Amino acid sequence: MSLPPLAPVAELERRLGLAPGTLAGSDLVRAGVALEDASTLVRAEAGTDWLAEDGVTVTAPAVVLTVVLGAALRAYRNPDGYSGESVGEYSYQYAREATSGYLTSAEVAIVRRAAGKLAGSGVYTVRTPSAYVNPDAPEPFPLAVVE
């Protein structure tokens, strides 16, 4: 079963400056696919589908929806991933991260944080030998050997 996009086409239309329901035909299909792709990438980073038990209601935090819509908007506006264009004296260039529907490193960090997957989070201990230890003294906390 295919999962629904994390954000609706109407929200993408708003970010394009269009009234909801304006996109039609191939433009509507492209917008839907861009949202599906962005949602898939976000879910892969998060390790969760952000859906309620009904399998339809989206439970993702607003910041995740912002990431999905940003990636989908980049893919929709620039489907071929062009980085720039020149015609005569006129030229423009996209920022490097604005040329694909893939998630930027900042977006990946946002998604992971929203999913509770903080890099380096956890409690770790490291045992280091003391320079003042008598090598002939018994180990105070012997390590268990697992076989």
Question: What are the main properties of this structure?
Answer:
single chain; two-stranded antiparallel sheet; 4 helices; 147 residues; 2 strands; Phage protein Gp19/Gp15/Gp42; mainly alpha
**Coarse morphology:** elongated
Order of helices and strands: HHHEEH
Task: Please state the structural category.
Answer: mainly alpha
Would you report the number of β strands?
2
Main sheet attributes: strand count, strand direction, barrel closure: 2 strands, antiparallel
- Strand content range: 5-15%
Tell me the number of structural domains: 1
Question: What is the count of helical runs?
Answer: 4
In order across it, which strands form the biggest sheet?
1-2
Unreliable stretches (pLDDT < 50, length at least 5) are: none
Distance between the termini: 43 Å
Mean pLDDT: 85
Helix content: 25-40%
Computed CA radius of gyration, to the nearest angstrom: 24 Å
Please state the oligomeric state of the protein chains shown.
Answer: single chain
Organism: Micromonospora nigra
Protein name: Phage protein Gp19/Gp15/Gp42
Topology:
Layout: H1 9-15, H2 25-46, H3 62-77, E1 84-87, E2 90-93, H4 105-114
Antiparallel strand pairs: 1-2
